[in-house]
Amino acid sequence: MWTVIYIAKNKKTAEKTLELLTQEGMLAKIQPVSKASDREDGYFEVLVPEGEAEDAQNIIYEAGI
C-alpha cells in the first residue's frame, strides 16, 4: 500500500523530492492532490510503500526539504 509522506507545494519540489528518494534506492511516486492540479503550481503528494515511510521521511528531513 502506498503512503503519503510529503505534500509539495509545486511540481518542481515534488520532482526534487522524488529524485532524492530514488537516488537513495527507494521506490517513490508523485501525484497531484486534485485532478485540477496537473499544472506546475498545484500541490503534489509524494508517496512511498508503507514499509519505507519512516525511512523516506528521515531522508527528506535530513535533506532539509
Question: What characteristics describe this protein?
Answer:
2 helices, Alpha-Beta Plaits, alpha+beta, 37% helix, 65 residues, three-stranded antiparallel β-sheet
Topology record:
Layout: E1 2-8, H1 11-23, E2 29-32, E3 44-49, H2 53-63
Antiparallel strand pairs: 1-3, 2-3
What does this entry look like structurally?
The chain has 65 residues and is an alpha+beta fold. It has a single domain (2-63), classed as Alpha-Beta Plaits (2-Layer Sandwich). It has 2 helices and 3 strands; from the N terminus they run βαββα. The protein has helices at residues 11-23, 53-63; strands spanning 2-8, 29-32, 44-49. Strands 1-3-2 form a 3-stranded antiparallel beta sheet. The radius of gyration is 11 Å and the shape is globular. The N and C termini lie far apart (24 Å). The mean pLDDT is 91.
Structural class: alpha+beta
User: Radius of gyration over alpha carbons?
Assistant: 11 Å
The unreliable regions are none
Estimated helix fraction: 25-40%
Number of strands: 3
CATH topology: Alpha-Beta Plaits
- How does the overall form come out from the CA principal axes? globular
User: What is the distance, rounded to the nearest whole angstrom, between the alpha carbons of the first and last residues?
Assistant: 24 Å
Please tell me the total number of domains: 1
Query: Regarding CATH, which class?
Result: Alpha Beta
CATH homologous superfamily - what is it?
Hypothetical protein rpa1041
Strand order of the largest sheet: 1-3-2
Corresponding CATH architecture:
2-Layer Sandwich
**Biggest sheet architecture:** 3 strands, antiparallel
Beta-strand percent range: 25-35%
Secondary-structure element string: EHEEH
pLDDT averaged over residues:
91
Report the total helices: 2
